[in-house]
Amino acid sequence: MEKTFAQEVEEGLSASPKFLSSKYHYDDEGSRIFQEIMAMPEYYLTNCELDIMKNRALEIYGATGFNTHFNIIELGAGDGAKTKEFLQNLLVENIDFTYVPIDISKEAIDILVKTMNQSLPNLKMNPQVGDYFEVMGKIEAKENCPNLVLFLGSNIGNFKSEWAVDLLQHMNEHMQSADKLLVGFDLMKNPNLIRNAYNDSQGITARFNMNVLTRINRELSGDFNLDTFDFYSFYNPENGDVKSYIYSLIEQDISIKETEKSFHFEKDECIWMELSKKYSLDGIEKLGADAGFQFKEHFLDSKGYFSDSLFTKG
Ligand SMILES: C[S@@+](CC[C@H](N)C(=O)[O-])C[C@H]1O[C@@H](n2cnc3c(N)ncnc32)[C@H](O)[C@@H]1O
User: Fold this and answer.
1) Using one digit for the tens of pLDDT, what is the confidence trace for 51-103?
2) How far, in Å, CA of 251 to CA of 245, rounded?
3) Where along the chain do its domains lie?
4) Which of 60, 61, 70, 66 is nearest to 147 (CA)?
5) pTM here?
6) ∠ at Cα 246 (16, 210), nearest 5°?
7) Fold of 44-190+279-313
8) Atom 12 in ligand 1: residue holding the nearest Cα
């Protein structure tokens, strides 16, 4: 059975070193702050993937080999701003598909629906609020046309290597033999560029991480005082890991009523908040193979910073 927020917080804050799952970043406020991150000049990822969506959409469609109606199922669609460009390219060519954006945040889906209705009035759309796999299970049961599954925005980078394999394997199990999977990977590159993307001068990334403490205070009756914590992140060019932390500026105990516990922090003690892993092209192909997929093609942006990589179910 899936663990509750309270159980995961208790487990993470009792561990040594402490950690919190990055999936809890995305309450409605977290999704809003993530939109701000995507608009930051340092956060090159958005423009790179936008470039692929704008300029390589028809090549990606060609590589799927689809020639009848299909679904484009997007896992964790967010505001769909980049995907909109991809869809527009297909609509211009009268390609027949239904777009199925899935997101756990209702606010994200509401914004997406509004944007799509305004910009692409002819789009066939079946938006879904909920967990990726629960919704995918339902769609699978009803539909018998092929699916192009999108997992964009370097979401995969939030998973440790072995979890990334598990996640892709899980997707594989939910897919039919004709389905295709397109995954967005941020590539290893100039380490200063990567470091700056996760350590912005305006402190937006720090706010994004601190919001998880606010969420614990609100939903689990915690007593984190945000002024006594700060944010730190670093990039390791040897293995591609960007790791983000919140650390305590003082020695203190934090009480969280819903867990019926308090948690001790030494001065400077860290909570590991997020992994944002960068991949090599070989690493992407190996990951796909480990999860049972056949690699088809990498679609890079014009700077060669980012890849949307296509796989077929093996
Ligand atoms: C990093 S954002 C990426 C958004 C978009 N794909 C992009 O590239 O701009 C991740 C999105 O996934 C959603 N999400 C996270 N975990 C989810 C889950 N288990 N099921 C559905 N959506 C999820 C979040 O609400 C958020 O909108």
Assistant:
1) 999 999 999 999 999 999 999 999 999 889 999 999 999 999 999 999 999 99
2) 17
3) 44-190+279-313
4) 70
5) 0.91
6) 130
7) Rossmann fold (3.40.50)
8) 76
